[in-house]
Design brief:
104 residues; 2 domains; two-stranded parallel ribbon; 4 helices
Length: 104
């Protein structure tokens, strides 16, 4: 399953909890038109894509760090590098813990 299909399934499952969401910020992997249309149909939210610059020169991309920074926080937690937990809820709790520890 692709990430886009997984994201759509997750949003369908949690549509009620996500009712207040008006904008979703995603990276270039979610830039296709059917994905943004499906999100708009499900939540009424718009999808903003934070794309990298096509040239290999350094420039600060607005909002790109918001998308990439959480992945860096997760990678700092060794236990989350590979999914070795028996239960999905245990992995989810460690994911929450990784973000809480980053705030401290």
């Amino acid at each position: 399953m692709t990430d886009r299909k997984g994201a759509i399934q997750a949003i369908e499952k949690h549509r009620i909890e996500l009712a207040a969401v008006t904008c979703i910020l995603a990276d270039g992997g979610y830039s296709d038109k059917p994905f943004s249309q499906t999100i708009h149909e499900l939540l009424g939210a718009q999808v903003q894509i934070a794309k990298r610059n096509e040239l290999h020169t350094f420039s600060v991309m607005p909002k790109r760090w918001i998308v990439e920074r959480p992945f860096a926080w997760i990678e700092k937690c060794r236990r989350l590098w590979k999914n070795c937990e028996r239960l999905l809820t245990t992995s989810l709790q460690f994911l929450h813990l990784a973000f809480l520890l980053k705030r401290l």
